[in-house]
């Protein structure tokens, strides 16, 4: 076959697979299989097809390309999450308290999971400590997009469309809230931990470069990577989101995006936030998420948010399907060649033991009611939230980033473990998420009915 024939066949396979992916959410509804599972399976089969000599779909061979593709996918997903969340995050103590589950997952569960995964990588997979830490940081982000039943729906809007920020609409910012604590906790966690995991990956890369970490290195990491760059990322997102929110809802009539009806501001916003966050050396994924939250806060119930979310959701869906298709093909095209039994066991323990235990520990409280509400989780909700920590695109991004910016030890093993973990998570959580969350929905309805 000529190179042109291979290229044409690639276009055909990708096009047909994505077309199938567009149909799958409807075909798999109410079934114990998800669209990501099917797309990943199609990719697995595609990877078995003959490739041109010297060509490989293994991201280890194309880390820079993998980094850019996953970057775009993540910033699109973060924007969709930020706009979709109905629970505002502003200056009042009550607002921050309603995000209690999120803070626990980010500040307690994630560091504990990173520590446990790093130890497992060192002990079971035989990784050097620096590589084990890079792996653990890469496996930290969660991705509810790959199990759609565990993410919140679109934004709640009133459809008045007048674009004015009235006093009663400011009151709506306080009244607006999510009615599903599990979906909110998992979605908001995913919005934050793509950026929150970055310092730990950087710490691992520092160990790769120096071979060890001194007390001064740790102090510098805490001051700059953990705190300083986080503050910069949040500040950039707040500033960009505030400015764009004002332009969308409060600018003079001729410049007001909400009145113009063009939802493509939702594509512009994450690019500006990410680019500025990177230029100022902040964690740019945090910038993107906070930017989306601030844009939503500009006029929280305006119908324009629904239009923007519709655009970004379609783009996110397409990009995610493409990444899953390529991941599946890579898995059978050599990505798993360096997977050992120890590495596979790390993935299994992360999904079935580490995440459930660290999540349950972080979310523990004295509440015994199944559906607690107001930022609290009942016992069954705590278990569901702890278990449904889906691994996905963030893991692939961090591995690509680490490969592009460092001479990683055990690089092939890291990719094998990471790819296997994502595939296992897509399978397990894709099958379990729907019945688990819908059982909670029925339980919630029963309690509401008295």
From TrEMBL:
Gene Ontology molecular-function annotations: antiporter activity
Keywords (A to Z) from UniProt: Antiport, Ion transport, Membrane, Transmembrane, Transmembrane helix, Transport
GO process terms (BP): proton transmembrane transport
Principal subcellular localisation of the protein: membrane
Spans through the membrane: 6-25, 32-49, 69-85, 105-125, 196-219, 231-251, 271-293, 314-332, 344-363, 383-402, 414-434
Compartment(s) of residence: Cell membrane
InterPro entries, alphabetized: Cation/H_exchanger_TM
Any single Gene Ontology cellular-component annotation: plasma membrane
Coiled coil (residue ranges): none
Span of domain Cation/H+ exchanger transmembrane: 17-439
Record membrane topology: Multi-pass membrane protein
Pfam family, one: Na_H_Exchanger
Protein name: Sodium/proton antiporter (CPA1 family)
Species of the source: Calidifontibacter indicus
């Amino acid at each position: 076959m000529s190179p042109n024939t291979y290229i044409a066949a690639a276009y055909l396979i990708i096009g047909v697979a994505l077309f199938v992916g567009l149909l799958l959410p409807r075909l798999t509804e109410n079934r114990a299989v998800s669209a990501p599972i099917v797309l990943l399976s199609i990719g697995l089969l595609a990877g078995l097809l003959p490739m041109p000599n010297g060509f490989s779909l293994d991201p280890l061979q194309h880390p820079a390309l993998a980094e850019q593709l996953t970057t775009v996918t993540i910033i699109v997903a973060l924007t969709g999450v930020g706009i979709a969340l109905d629970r505002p995050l502003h200056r009042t103590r009550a607002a921050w308290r309603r995000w209690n589950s999120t803070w626990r997952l980010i500040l307690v569960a994630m560091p504990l999971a990173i520590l446990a995964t790093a130890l497992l990588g060192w002990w079971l997979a035989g990784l050097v400590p620096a590589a084990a830490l890079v792996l653990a940081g890469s496996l930290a982000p969660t991705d509810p997009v790959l199990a759609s039943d565990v993410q919140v729906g679109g934004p709640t809007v009133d459809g008045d469309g007048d674009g004015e920020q009235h006093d009663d609409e400011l009151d709506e910012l306080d009244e607006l809230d999510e009615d599903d604590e599990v979906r909110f906790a998992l979605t908001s966690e995913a919005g934050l931990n793509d950026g929150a995991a970055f310092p730990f990956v950087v710490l691992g890369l520092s160990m790769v470069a120096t071979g060890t970490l001194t007390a001064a290195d740790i102090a510098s990491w805490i001051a700059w990577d953990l705190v300083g760059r986080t503050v910069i990322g949040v500040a950039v997102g707040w500033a960009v989101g505030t400015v764009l929110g004002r332009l969308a809802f409060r600018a003079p009539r001729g410049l007001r995006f909400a009145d113009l009806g063009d939802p493509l501001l939702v594509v512009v916003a994450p690019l500006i936030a990410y680019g500025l966050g990177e230029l100022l050396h902040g964690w740019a994924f945090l910038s993107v998420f906070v930017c989306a939250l601030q844009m939503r806060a500009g006029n929280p119930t305006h119908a324009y948010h629904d239009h923007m979310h519709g655009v970004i959701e379609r783009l996110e869906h397409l990009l995610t399907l493409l990444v899953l298709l390529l991941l599946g093909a890579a898995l059978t095209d050599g990505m798993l060649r360096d997977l050992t039994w120890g590495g596979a066991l790390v993935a299994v323990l992360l999904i079935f033991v580490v995440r459930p235990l660290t999540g349950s520990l972080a979310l523990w409280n004295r509440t015994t009611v199944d559906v607690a509400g107001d930022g609290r989780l009942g016992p069954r909700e705590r278990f569901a939230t702890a278990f449904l920590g889906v691994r996905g695109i963030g893991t692939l991004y961090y591995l690509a980033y680490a490969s592009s910016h460092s001479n990683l030890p055990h690089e092939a093993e890291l990719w094998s473990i990471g790819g296997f973990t994502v595939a296992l998570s897509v399978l397990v959580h894709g099958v379990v998420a729907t019945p688990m969350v819908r059982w909670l929905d029925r339980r919630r309805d029963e309690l509401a009915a008295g």
